[in-house]
Amino acid sequence: MVYADRIVxxxxxxxxxxxxxxxxxxxxxxxxKLSEGNSMDELIQSYPHLTKEDILAVLSYSADVIAREEIxxx
Length: 74
Prior knowledge:
- The protein is about 45% helix and about 5% strand.
- It has helices spanning about 25-35, 40-45, 50-65, and strands at about 5-10, 20.
């Protein structure tokens, strides 16, 4: 999945946090709701502008961010 078409970051929107393009729904919010046990269908019902593809883009984006994370041993 190419998430660049769906996930954007702009200092003028939500202080630059990554959001679903055209919304103020943050990647963080979607991940939090999924971690609390909400299903994709429940999220889509709660946020009508959200699509299944948006949620999959959030997961893809998050996986890429974690893959690039550097762990510094102390």
